[in-house]
């Protein structure tokens, strides 16, 4: 019988692990783990390199996950394009998921207190610092933590090379937040982070008091964020949703996910035409509420015009700084008494809410998994990011 170095390392590891567990888990029951993991490391702008690192022995508080896949986020592409965060070299990927193959003996539950075991499907979430003003004095709003961290946005370091999901194995260490999600499909798990963004935005919108069962809601921008927002609103009971975009393919997706009306800005290039179209769809008055999901500063100015007097707006389209925009404070805000709220990321505590949304959406037959239009292997992550930029697809994913 031939046996290669990887297999020997894996057998040794299994035996050691069995010993570490006091012999409770016989070595033969542990899934095999190779000696090395492959990662797609961003080493220069627009340049992923596949690198290989030894898989370390995990500590008593750590978890080793065999990666199944990860969504590519707009933030990943932003960093890939020009390293605005200054993190290069790094392993990107924060929308990932996989199966637990090793568990430190102190790890008994996930962040929600659910029992955890080898073989469980896992996702990671954000980690707040616990020390800043927000963490100390406003613990219900840790999405605003000054130093919020997340796997996949950590510069490469000697302590842990396997700290981003664009890899074959992830080494999760003490102090992380993670959730067992065995009842969600791989595709649902890869969409979970995006769902956390939109379920948080839904809650922010509700804070204005201007969102209810009778609301006609406009969603401006039908990229992954806007489309997930449409599905979130539909699942929550909003049944009149107007989607605005210039991409017919994306508007078709919007219809599938719950939009009842669409406005294509390429067909109606003048703002006044689009405002009239929206008024025609809303008994002549304008939308009761709007979600701004474009990242386009002109769109951020325009959105006020679509909203009726006494309406509400949630601005969620600028996770990155795309510049300034102008509004007319008299017409747009003051005279209309618009209730305006921003939405920023989400807290780890909102992950279970996002899971509940995905389950409910599936139960309602909303075909969210169709959002995943392209899947790429580790050695094609540059192509994957290019596809994202081209806007030919919707949600682009890495598949291990
Ligand atoms: N608030 C948050 O926590 C959060 C989280 C993630 C992303 N974001 C932000 O959400 C934005 C959207 O993300 P995405 O991944 O969906 O991006 P995307 O670029 O894929 O989608 C943006 C969409 O907006 C459309 N658009 C552009 N100008 C428009 C206009 N004038 N009117 C209507 N539609 C217009 C585009 O055609 C495109 O389909 C990003 O700019 C990102 O910064 C926010
Ligand atoms: Zn993301
Ligand atoms: Zn903090």
TrEMBL record:
<dbReference type="InterPro" id="IPR050129">
    <property type="entry name" value="Zn_alcohol_dh"/>
</dbReference>
<dbReference type="Pfam" id="PF08240">
    <property type="entry name" value="ADH_N"/>
</dbReference>
<keyword id="KW-0479">Metal-binding</keyword>
<dbReference type="InterPro" id="IPR011032">
    <property type="entry name" value="GroES-like_sf"/>
</dbReference>
<dbReference type="GO" id="GO:0016491">
    <property type="term" value="F:oxidoreductase activity"/>
</dbReference>
<dbReference type="InterPro" id="IPR013149">
    <property type="entry name" value="ADH-like_C"/>
</dbReference>
<feature type="domain" description="Alcohol dehydrogenase-like C-terminal">
    <location>
        <begin position="224"/>
        <end position="358"/>
    </location>
</feature>
<keyword id="KW-0862">Zinc</keyword>
<dbReference type="InterPro" id="IPR002328">
    <property type="entry name" value="ADH_Zn_CS"/>
</dbReference>
<feature type="domain" description="Alcohol dehydrogenase-like N-terminal">
    <location>
        <begin position="59"/>
        <end position="174"/>
    </location>
</feature>
<dbReference type="InterPro" id="IPR036291">
    <property type="entry name" value="NAD(P)-bd_dom_sf"/>
</dbReference>
<dbReference type="Pfam" id="PF00107">
    <property type="entry name" value="ADH_zinc_N"/>
</dbReference>
<comment type="similarity">
    <text>Belongs to the zinc-containing alcohol dehydrogenase family.</text>
</comment>
<dbReference type="InterPro" id="IPR013154">
    <property type="entry name" value="ADH-like_N"/>
</dbReference>
<dbReference type="GO" id="GO:0008270">
    <property type="term" value="F:zinc ion binding"/>
</dbReference>
<keyword id="KW-0560">Oxidoreductase</keyword>
<protein>
    <submittedName>
        <fullName>Theronine dehydrogenase</fullName>
    </submittedName>
</protein>
